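Working notes for the structural subgroup meeting. M.R. asked for a predicted model of this chain before we commit to crystallization trials. I am recording the input and output together here so anyone reviewing the notebook later can reproduce the run.

Input as submitted:
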Amino acid sequence: MEIKEYPGKLTPFVVLTCLIAATGGLIAGYGIGISGGVTSMDPFLKKFFPSVYRKEKQNQSSNQYCTFDSQILTTFTSSLYLAALVASFFASPVTRIFGRRWSMFAGGVSFLVGAALNGAAQDVFMLIFGRILLGIGVGFVGQSVPLYLSEMAPAKLRGMLNITCQLMVTIGIFSANLINYGVSKIEAGWGWRLSLALAAVPATVITIGSLFLPDTPNSLIERGHDEKAKEILRKIRGTDDILEEYSDLVAAGKDSKQTRHPWINIVKRKYRPHLTMAILIPFFQQLTGINVIMFYAPVLFKTLGFGSSTSLVSAVIIGLVNVCATFVSIGTVDRLGRRLLFLQGGFQMLACQIILGTLIAIKFGTTGEGTIPKTYAAFMVLFICIYVAGFAWSWGPLGGTLVPSEIFPLEIRSAGQSINVSVNMLFTFVVAQTFLPMLCHFKFGLFYFFAGWVIVMTIFIALFLPETKNVPIEKMILVWKAHWFWNKSIPDKNEHVSTKEMATI
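Returned structure, recorded in token form:
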């Protein structure tokens, strides 16, 4: 299938705007990374979760699988994701009616207030309420930033620029891990406050940055600002030859204006492939098992017998691997395509999960009793790092931001992205809330459980996801029409596809 590229080039202006917008990923990453670290700090547990702290000390030589099984402790972590789920639905009309950048601004402000409450928390209620405000910020930013990046980027480099958001997520996680390690050395015991309060730094970056961003041509046309859209399009493409792309955007904008109820329209037959991907890709992403590692890396290592300081160091190593591997995705996604990275990453994660489950089974068995020698522990960390690398150049950036944000037509784009974020947050919440009880009951079998899901999702990608690299975002209908399964859902007549383009399919 050949699709003509629009004229234009990668301009410094579009790079700068995309980098500023991508900093929204920092708040999501910091929120993910910080919770696992502070919940492994004794002063934090003693103040807010004393029963967990007592259980940890009493169980140091007994069942390593069940030490941290506390619903109130997991509620602290997972409340962010439940709040983000709900917030994403409110973000959809804001993003559509007021533009992408104002959703980013709202998310930044909410995250800023949440960081202040968490840093000053005196009781569990204050702690969790601050965490909920962090979640609202993540919901708004997660809904708007990927759309902004996909709409601003030229088609041939959309993957690279979109994945900068996921890069910021990994940097946020890595920064949180470093800060957790550093503040754990503060003997006075208030280091956890510093960890939580420093969430204000990434929140300030996206809050202020969003005020200086231009809105996307797609959003401007959708809201009736055609001339302004034309001006921005010239600026981001670095050429006056924008007629073809502008005409496609206007056609998409016309449909969007006629679609008054995107939440109703998205369930129509012609949007069936889009809706399927918006639900199943984020669903599968959470069942890769990555958040088991990223949320609870320090807790997990501590549970497996590592010392407190060693567990935080291991989390820092994992965070660094996550950042570096994301650069691999940035450099290859527009050349190798989305499908190849998805499939390769799936096989890599599957192998590592089977090996890790087996290593834990050999050492702890079903009783959870025992300790891990240093050499054995280093071997486990190695395979965890290989697993994280596989996720970081496949399901992380492709499933989290890129593919869901580039497949929707303009008239349902904000609603579709809200569904993507809400499903992602729902199952992030479920995994965060159930992981510790599952570890307690499934034991080493938990790794095999997630490995089974990796097999399912890899088969799904192989059969049902078409390749979307280098396809202009408003011509994405072509890939669905060319697909062996989804072409049954796409009507033969479509105003965005010319006769000549259809002939290339």
